[in-house]
Design goal:
The protein is an all-alpha fold. Helix content is 78%, strand content 0%. The chain starts with 6 loop residues before the first helix and ends with a helix.
Length: 76
Amino acid sequence: MMALSKIQEARDLSNDELAKQIAAVKRELFQLRFQKGTRRLEKPHQFKHARHRLAQLMTVEQERKRQDSETVAAKE
């Protein structure tokens, strides 16, 4: 079994890489749902890993947005 990814890996990504990873994980979740619907899903634990990764990536994205807005507010 593969270990869940660490959030530090997400924090090390650039903003562009972060956006690409989010899109990729969303595509992966779509594919997993499709496989589940057609009863071809072999490894149901992949859902947990993908959702976990998406949550991490989106958390980092929100942290950066909040940090950027605070920086802008501090300059005004």
